[in-house]
Amino acid sequence: MAYKNEKYGNKDKSGAPGRSSGPDKNKKTGKDYTSDKEGRAGKFGKTEKDGGSRYGKSRSQEGGSAKGKEGRTPSEEKPERSVRQLEGKNSVLEALKSGVTIEKIMIATGRRETGSTELLDLAKEQKIKVQFVDRKKLDFSSRTGNHQGIIAIATSYSYSEPEDIVKRAEEKGELPFIVVLDQITDPHNFGAIIRTAEACGVHGIIIPRNRSVDITSIVVKSSAGAVEYMMISKVTNLTQTLKDLKSKGLWICGADLDGETYYKKDYKMPLALVIGSEGKGISRLVKEECDFTVSVPMYGKIGSLNASVATGIILSEAARQRKEG
Fold first, then answer.
1. Which residues does residue 205 pair with via DSSP β-bridges, in sequence order?
2. Which residue, 186, 89, 96, is CA-closest to 146?
């Protein structure tokens, strides 16, 4: 769906560079791909969905029937289960509320932390196995170092496609609001960004397959369970994905130190906000795809902000504007 709005036909009121209202041309071929659905680059490149990966042809495709253990072919072997570990009360509780498939929940015997009643009630209602175990066993199994006496084993996170995120916004009757993360590798930052994005009404988050943190136990715990409500897409080519989003009518806003003050901009449009890493910022090729950039002014002696903090500041202003209309 292309979002046509005369307000953003040439230049928005806040000074964002305008996109031509005429047909977009492919610079290499000269082909009009905005009017020609067959020739348009709106396929979002290769993505990794449901935790899968695409590494070309399999061994069986390239050359016959390589035998696995006990003389069995790979197709005959039992596939390995794909699960993930959730740690902490909030992470497990939100997973239960969101309908995530949980195989079992382990709770430390004599757990003193509050808030277990609702969790146990939901687990009983959903007929999920609950085990009371020695806290030392949880300490040994913990991947975050802060399990709060509760660990759950759940199915792996299911990734979405970028077009699914846009479709979700359309179904809600809202202008798309997407966060794009460029080279965010710290799991605590990623989790905090997911939590803030969910609170600000973001429809989904896009991350690159390489040079980016994945959904881990630390990310889930840092998001306080918000990851269970957020659509996340993992793509091979972030630059191409931004081109595809623009072809669908979205405006690309980058967070950059040289950008205009964030609260002077207008965010009431189909929008994708690009956030770069704390040390390197947005990569050059990604920055070239941004329609405009914004920055958070610094009045103290510190010259920059943590990526998740900067994201929260900009998202809160964008959410306020979009809510007020």
1. 179, 232
2. 89
What average pLDDT does range 232-252 have in this prediction? 96
Residues 6+ apart with CB under 8 A from 315: 179, 196, 197, 200, 202, 273
Q: What's the CATH code, domain 83-155?
A: 3.30.1330.30
What does pTM read for this prediction? 0.66
pLDDT above 80: residue 66: no
Average pLDDT, the chain: 79
**Amino acid letter, residue 309:** V
CATH for 158-324, options being 3.30.230.80, 3.60.40.10, 3.40.1280.10, 3.30.200.20:
3.40.1280.10
CB 86 within 8 A of CB 217: yes
Q: Which of 236, 234, 238 lies closest to 284 in space, CA to CA? A: 238
> Rounded to whole angstroms, what are the CA distances from 68 to 76, 148, 203, 230?
9, 41, 43, 38
Higher local confidence (pLDDT), 262 or 68: 262
